[in-house]
Amino acid sequence: MSDLKKLEIWFVTGSQHLYGDETLRQVATHSTAIAAFFNSHERMPVTVVYKPTVKTPEEIYAVCMEANAIPNCIGIVTWMHTFSPAKMWIAGLKALQKPVCHLHTQFNRDIPWSEIDMDFMNLNQSAHGDREFGFMMSRMRLNRKVVTGHWQDPEVLAEVAMWTRAAAGWHDWQGARFVRFGDNMRYVAVTDGDKVEAESKFGFSVNTYGIGDLVQVINGISDAAVATLVKEYGDAYTMSSSLLQDPALKDAARIELGLKAFLEDGNFKGFSDTFEDLHGMTQLPGIAVQRLMQAGYGFAGEGDWKTAALVRAMKVMGSGLPGGNSFMEDYTYHFDPQNPMVLGAHMLEICSSIAAGKPSCEKHPLGIGGKSDPVRLVFNVGAGPAINASVVDMGNRFRLIVNEVEAVAPPQDLPKLPVARVLWKPYPDMKKGCTAWILAGGAHHTCFSQNLSAAHMQDFADIAGIELALIGKDTDLRQFRNELRWSEVYYKLYQS
Q1: Cα 12 from Cα 45, distance rounded (Å)
Q2: What is the pTM of this model?
Q3: Kind of pairing between the strands at 205-209 and 298-301
Q4: DSSP per-residue string spanning 346-401
Q5: Per-residue pLDDT for 495 more than 80?
Q6: Are 166 and 191 in contact (CB under 8 A)?
Q7: pLDDT at residue 384 above 80?
Q8: How confident is the model at residue 305 (pLDDT cuts 50, 70, 90)?
Q9: How many Cα atoms within 13 Å fall on the side-chain side of residue 444?
Q10: CA distance 292 to 93
Q11: Strand 73-80's sheet: what is its strand order?
Q12: Spatial distance between the Cα atoms of 19 and 148, rounded to a whole number of angstroms
């Protein structure tokens, strides 16, 4: 997956010439120390780069334009050590195209009671310097993350690190390419959407390729490459000896190698397909999709390009964290009043990054698609906190819907269910959680994440400038309905 340390966040401190050279030297020393602390901490996933103190409109504009021009700079953290008159920031902030995290801190944690004097006060003015800067960003209606507290506080570090993950996911979308093999599943609404608006809003493009284009690449894969991958399957997964000799396993391996070659050749970061368009293929891709997702590609079935892109972004955001991210579908319910649950699965394509234990490689009939029995990985998913996230096109805007859930171990075996699966309890409870999802227009496709939180997704939505509808432990349906109504009014006014 992505090495986030190759990405940079710039630490930019604001001041002015009013205070003199000695004070500015101390500002630089303090800023260097904070940037170094952040950069060296194991919880910081990206590289934090100190930038010289900006003191004039020209210096501010220059660093913002430089940030725009450096490909691996994914955002800036700003801090006003002293008072930095915010009119100086207007031109730079208008030009800046990267996300901003406003760190509201000060170098010293405590007031030095017996030694504090006016020199100390003039140097340590973040308490009102940051308010001046905050006003300007609010006045300009600019989205940003605000983190308040002492820079050595573990909670402050965690918030900044969380924001950098959201910035990394957003950065990965810029210029990203996603391929849609075939079209949308016929007559389905929620998986479709405005690809032109998505490219304008999100920065990634989605284009359709005929399934024949893919089949041509698949058919060109050598038998030797297929044999090598089949051996890898046998080493990596639990598998019957009969399947190891089955031609269907070779077909599955050839499909994986062809898909991978197609994606690499086109520099695609994700893809979608549909069982309604398989002409020329022997089976619907199963294990191929599961393994490509584990390698970092985004995916969603049935032409759902929005979820494919979201899966990719969330995989980037979760890089290096324990647990995984996968395409998911709310498949069926367990309405036991004492133990209600959702069973999440899909026909074949659940990412093995979320498997609890060693997956089993199996071949079973699919029942739809009209092709031969596909090979897939079968496994359960471990218990623990998780989220489901979905992007939907509301016509006048995109909405990101997030439901906090608690994954649970299956209370019984599922010997006849030949797919990967996970059980979860939606918050605040089964009835309210599912009702809120329906009210928000949530899709049946999601990205299921074990290593990201609703807070990560809030940062991501803020960077993207889209609506977030959160369904969590404290959700009240009456309030949730009102929030959806208020958002409707806000976006009509905001976009008018």
Answers
A1: 18
A2: 0.96
A3: unpaired
A4: -SS---GGGBSSPPEEEE---SSSSSPPPEEEE-BB--EEEEEEEEEE-SSSEEEE
A5: no
A6: no
A7: yes
A8: very high
A9: 14
A10: 39
A11: 47-50, 8-14, 73-80, 100-104, 145-148
A12: 25
